[in-house]
Specification:
The chain has a single domain, classed as Orthogonal Bundle (Arc Repressor Mutant, subunit A). Helices cover about 40% and strands about 10% of the residues. The chain has 4 helices and 2 strands, in the order αααββα. It has a two-stranded antiparallel sheet with strand order 1-2. α2 packs across α3. The radius of gyration is 13 Å and the shape is globular. The relative contact order is 0.23.
Length: about 90
């Protein structure tokens, strides 16, 4: 059985993000540590399916648990995610 990290690396190198995924990932570029937003520019929550698909592809990773909102998935852009959208990640 292939480890999850190896599967994520393969997925990140061969898959392409949807337009919604790409928009979400791009928003992490200028943020300290590559923090990805919980809400879109209109104030609506980013769909969990978008977040989970990006995590599975290796483009994003969970950053920390939010104790006041445990159902919120706080993530950051990975180096693979930055490469996928053609940018270098911002260091925190």
């Amino acid at each position: 059985m292939v480890e999850k990290s190896a599967k994520s690396a393969v997925a990140a190198s061969t898959a392409r993000p949807s337009e919604a995924q790409r928009r979400w990932l791009m928003r992490g570029l200028g943020q300290p540590g590559g923090k990805l937003p919980l809400f879109d520019r209109e104030g609506k929550e980013v769909p969990h399916a978008t977040i989970r698909a990006c995590i599975e592809a290796g483009w994003a990773e969970p950053w920390f648990a939010n104790p006041t909102k445990p159902d919120w998935l706080v993530c950051k852009l990975t180096e693979a995610g930055s490469r996928m959208i053609g940018e270098k990640p911002t260091k925190s």
